[in-house]
Amino acid sequence: MAAVAASSRLRLLLLVAVLAAGAAAAAAGEQYRVGGPDGWIAPPPEEKELYYSRWASSIAFYVGDSIEFEYRNDSVIKVSKAGYYHCNETAGVDAGDAPVPGDGARVFYLYVPGFAYFASPDLGRCNEGQRLMINVLAAVPPAAAPAPSTDYDTGAAAGSAFAAASFFAPVVSAAAMAMAGLV
């Protein structure tokens, strides 16, 4: 009986951790359109080395963000550092990533900190400057917390009980399901 209770507690803790991590990632992420209004294009020849680095330099990318590539008669792949610098990769670093050129959009989620490299799988376009390197930062800096407003009827911080209840309701519901053996 004690082993079953310990197993249930472990499943509950894992479930709560997964839910909390998912909620944090969903709340933290911003999505950016690569290249701004022009989208994913081969840059003008005179800007081939600076076009996408200039665009990326104005943005701080964090784990949990995503970048969207919109293109016409092209595609995009995530490449290695060497693939970025040498424009010699036509398939992405992720297994099975060999997109077919066409019109469309592709979103990449930024899951790990560090440099991430992207390029057109068309080697000619990559050599023309259609490639992107970004530095993904580990964590979003904390926002300044607003001063709590006071509910003069009770003296408690206004909305604090409601905010806590609405945040923890899914966690409590999932915990109850886990304890009942439904998950």
From TrEMBL:
Residues 1-28 form the signal peptide. Residues 30-138 form the Phytocyanin domain. Pfam families: Cu_bind_like. Keywords: Signal. GO terms for cellular component: plasma membrane. It comes from the Eukaryota. One of its GO terms (molecular function) is electron transfer activity. PANTHER family: BLUE COPPER PROTEIN, EARLY NODULIN-LIKE PROTEIN 7. This is Phytocyanin domain-containing protein. It comes from Oryza glumipatula. The lineage of its organism: Eukaryota, Viridiplantae, Streptophyta, Embryophyta, Tracheophyta.
